[in-house]
Specification:
Layout lengths: L2 H13 L5 H9 L6 H7 L5 H16 L4
Helix pairs in contact: 1-4, 2-3, 3-4
Protein backbone atom coordinates (compact mmCIF):
# COMPACT_ATOMS: atom_id res chain seq x y z
CA UNK A 1 0.00 0.00 0.00
CA UNK A 2 1.36 3.43 -0.92
CA UNK A 3 1.11 6.56 1.18
CA UNK A 4 -2.33 7.82 -0.01
CA UNK A 5 -3.91 4.39 0.44
CA UNK A 6 -2.08 3.88 3.68
CA UNK A 7 -3.45 7.15 5.03
CA UNK A 8 -6.93 6.11 3.89
CA UNK A 9 -6.53 2.90 5.90
CA UNK A 10 -5.45 4.81 8.99
CA UNK A 11 -8.37 7.22 8.54
CA UNK A 12 -10.77 4.26 8.31
CA UNK A 13 -9.31 2.68 11.43
CA UNK A 14 -9.65 5.89 13.41
CA UNK A 15 -12.95 7.21 12.09
CA UNK A 16 -14.96 4.04 11.51
CA UNK A 17 -13.52 1.71 14.16
CA UNK A 18 -12.38 4.25 16.73
CA UNK A 19 -8.81 2.95 16.91
CA UNK A 20 -6.65 5.44 18.78
CA UNK A 21 -3.52 7.04 17.36
CA UNK A 22 -1.56 5.42 20.19
CA UNK A 23 -2.78 1.94 19.21
CA UNK A 24 -1.87 2.55 15.58
CA UNK A 25 1.56 3.77 16.66
CA UNK A 26 2.16 0.59 18.69
CA UNK A 27 1.19 -1.58 15.73
CA UNK A 28 3.30 0.46 13.30
CA UNK A 29 6.40 -0.11 15.42
CA UNK A 30 5.91 -3.85 14.93
CA UNK A 31 4.92 -3.72 11.28
CA UNK A 32 8.00 -5.63 10.15
CA UNK A 33 6.22 -8.69 11.57
CA UNK A 34 3.11 -8.22 9.42
CA UNK A 35 0.55 -5.84 7.95
CA UNK A 36 -0.91 -3.11 10.14
CA UNK A 37 -4.40 -4.66 10.50
CA UNK A 38 -2.90 -8.00 11.57
CA UNK A 39 -0.61 -6.33 14.11
CA UNK A 40 -3.57 -4.44 15.60
CA UNK A 41 -5.47 -7.70 15.95
CA UNK A 42 -2.51 -9.70 17.32
CA UNK A 43 -1.95 -7.08 20.02
CA UNK A 44 -5.64 -7.15 20.92
CA UNK A 45 -6.18 -3.57 19.77
CA UNK A 46 -9.04 -4.56 17.43
CA UNK A 47 -11.43 -7.51 17.55
CA UNK A 48 -11.72 -10.27 14.99
CA UNK A 49 -14.93 -8.67 13.75
CA UNK A 50 -13.13 -5.36 13.31
CA UNK A 51 -10.29 -7.11 11.49
CA UNK A 52 -12.84 -8.62 9.11
CA UNK A 53 -14.34 -5.15 8.61
CA UNK A 54 -10.89 -3.80 7.74
CA UNK A 55 -10.33 -6.55 5.17
CA UNK A 56 -13.78 -5.96 3.70
CA UNK A 57 -13.07 -2.23 3.50
CA UNK A 58 -9.72 -2.85 1.78
CA UNK A 59 -11.30 -5.26 -0.68
CA UNK A 60 -14.17 -2.95 -1.62
CA UNK A 61 -12.20 0.30 -1.55
CA UNK A 62 -9.20 -0.70 -3.57
CA UNK A 63 -10.54 -3.30 -5.99
CA UNK A 64 -12.43 -0.53 -7.83
CA UNK A 65 -9.24 1.54 -8.21
CA UNK A 66 -7.26 -1.32 -9.73
CA UNK A 67 -9.62 -2.08 -12.63
Amino acid sequence: MKSKRYQQLIDFLQQELGVSSASIHVALKSQQQGPLPMMLWQYGLITLEELNAVFHWIETSFSVDET
